[in-house]
Amino acid sequence: MEPADAGAAGGWQAVPDQAVPTRNISSRVIVHVDLDCFYAQVEMISNPELKNKPLGVQQKSFVITCNYEARKLGVKKCMKVKDAKEKCPQLVLVNGEDLTRYREMSYKVTELLGEFTPLVERLGFDENFVDLTQMVEKRLQQLQSDELAAVTVSGHLYNNQSVDLHDTMHVRLLIGSQIAAEMRKAMYNQLGLTGCAGIASNKLLAKLVSGVFKPNQQTVLLPESCQDLILALNHVKEIPGIGYKTAKCLEALGIRSVHDLQTFSSKILEKELGNSLAQHIQKLSFGEDNSSVIPSGQPQSFSEEESFKKCSSEVEAKKKIEELLSILLNRVCQDGRKPHTVRLAIRRSSSKYYSRESRQCPIPCHIIQKLGTGNCDVMTSLVNILMKLFRNMVNVKMPFHLTLLSVCFCNLKALIRAKKGPMDYYLTPSLSTTSHSGKHSFKMKDTYMED
DNA sequence: TGGGGTTAT
DNA sequence: ATAACCC
């Protein structure tokens, strides 16, 4: 999360201080866009009757998210269904184990943001970072001086800090807040989705400030209030980038608050956590984050998983694997690219916390070529491969007890290139065997709307 | 929790 | 292949 490429993605090079009006990494304008209770919103769009009702989205025995109606009535994220019903008997539940519609809507949001600038990085299904630096720069240059003097914030200003229009960073962030408002408006008008946005000079701060006013509001952070924002956190674990494990380590060192981390001896922290992690998180504790917005592009992997109370026979496992695989095959077919690796992961009931074991192997070439043809052999061959991976992990001659199976396709490669004459074009084996339905013999996802 | 994702080691 | 992180 901290590649040392200062600003390469921002469009300028690191230059010596005297040269040109160069800008360092801390004068970027980043927005973090965070959809409100995303799965619940998607469900309410699918079925408008659910609006105005307390709605929870259920996976297995948990309510994993819910709308604001439900929150008002005491339902929390990750609550047991049983507890949620007790708290809120009128709670309406929908099953959210199939992520298809959420995934599709999620990519629509990312694509919409991508129309503003290609610098969009996804974080999960419901969050995106956008680097607005260049867009802001362009708008700034177009502004007349009288307009510049009238620039105002859109949405909230963190801390109600006073704005100095002579401060170029202030002006840039305000323009960023206007673009963020346009983004949220577009999300609502075109997709019917509401969300929050946070505008700041780096990803960490943008993300932290986006949650200050919820739901469906936005907040801009000016540099002078950076310390107030980060010190307002109650625990180091609330800093994105400090997860469960790191927080436990820090706690063992007596570090609980952000201030504790800021003032802790760097030397000792480095000894305990290693140089890289120590330096990284100590920077985070000051609100410093030089990581760039990395455009996500297409996904790196596709997986389907299922958890359950118990799976203790090979036959049972095979059934579940077949089910996961068949869904995945359809997904990967639609993507158009070809996976070159398959992975099987399991969780044993005896496993501590969340740990999984996995085995992976290359997908044989002849199978890759048949992917997407609807060929039944593909399914059979892949199931055989997956069962080998399974038996490599699980001694089926001994009793076992699994609580999760997951199948993953990764190592996705664009297309197989065919050299044919002056126009070398791409084709997928799937389509090379069928008639050419259009001008292009390859399948591409239509990401542009016809207008 | 679930059912996903990512990157670093 | 695992371990950490994110949602």
UniProtKB/TrEMBL annotation:
MF terms in GO: damaged DNA binding; DNA-directed DNA polymerase activity
Domain UmuC: residue ranges: 30-243
The entry's keywords: DNA synthesis, Transferase
Biological-process GO terms, alphabetical: DNA repair; translesion synthesis
Residue ranges of the TM segments: none
Source domain of life: Eukaryota
Family listed: Belongs to the DNA polymerase type-Y family.
Protein name: DNA polymerase iota isoform X1
Gene name as annotated: Poli
Full protein stretch here: 1 to 451 of 696
